[in-house]
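Hi support team,

I'm opening this ticket because the web form for multi-chain structure prediction keeps timing out on my end. I have pasted the exact lines I submitted so you can reproduce it. The total is 352 residues across two entries, so I didn't expect it to be a heavy job. Is there a limit I'm missing, or should I split the entries? Thanks in advance, R.K.
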Amino acid sequence: MPPGDLEDIVDRALKQLPAPRAPGTLLPRVMAAIEAGRVESAAARAPRARPWVTWPLAWQVASITVAIALGVGVAKLWPHAASVAALSATTLAGDAFARLSAIAAETARTAATVASVTRIVWHALVQPFVGYLMVLVLVMCAACATFGAALGRVVLGGVPQT
Amino acid sequence: MTDAAFETFVREYQDMVYATAIRLLSSPAEAEDVAQTVFLKAFERFDDVGASPAAPGWLKTVTTNLCLNHLSRYRSRWRFFSELKPTGGAVVDDSGLRDHVDGLLARAGAHVTAAPEADLDAAHEQARLERALRRLPDHQRVPIVLFHFENKSYLEIAALLDVTLAKVKTDIHRGREALKEALVSTHAAR
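Hello R.K., no limit was hit. The queue was backed up. Here is the completed structure from your submission:
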């Protein structure tokens, strides 16, 4: 049979085939996926709405640091709270401004102390391990990249994954 | 954009997208996955695509590209892990095909006219041809579908599949020969 005839015969037969219909599950799947995507993107926009354990590492470290600083600050400032309360009752007195200035100075000194404590904790407990941590991360990244490249070459025969 | 508008859009084009995907992939599950991905992409660009007269063409192009990507990427991985012999034979999921064939026969039965046997024969022939098409190996079925259903030229197919023009012509010719056998055996069985 000449190729042209074969092409015509097959073309006619194929064109007469009724198109397969989409399954009834397709539309609900698409709409559910869209809804899931909305929820996911909303969660991604507001990381603080997620559980703490799912926060990015930088956020977790920052939150711990802030919590420690707040705790130390509250502990240091607590003795002064009573005097501030008493002072607030006599704010209208003549020497109120001088007292407030003194308390502000005391608060500044306390804040400086908290900062010093935080810096010491950082230098003593965290900083010594940062170098090792970075080396570990780099080694793990290199191992993963090597393994991925080898797997791609063996399994996929070099098919690009883009 | 409202969800109702997009739902109407999906209802309008889901058969077209699915038909393209199932014929290229010959697997109902994979075709449904690809169709879902196509509509998610359409959702992202619905303001541009939704009311456009080019929507059907855009959907077909995206579907075709995703199917070819799927074939080249995932099937090789699946074959490796399942230790399937790499003969290039198509992996046919007969469950969806059976449903489609049953549908063809049911439709023929529902439209019984003056010549009910002729209707049933035609349905049987279509079912056999559909089955033969889905059982072709990927490298024959895909160019045949692109040529006969998507109206691509040999050159366009060669570019899409990244193979030579000669290979496209050879594969299509061999695929047509296999389909012709299915047609001939149907006529011989009558």
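A quick check on our side: The helical segments of chain A are 3-15, 26-45, 57-89, 96-156. Let us know if the file doesn't open in your viewer.
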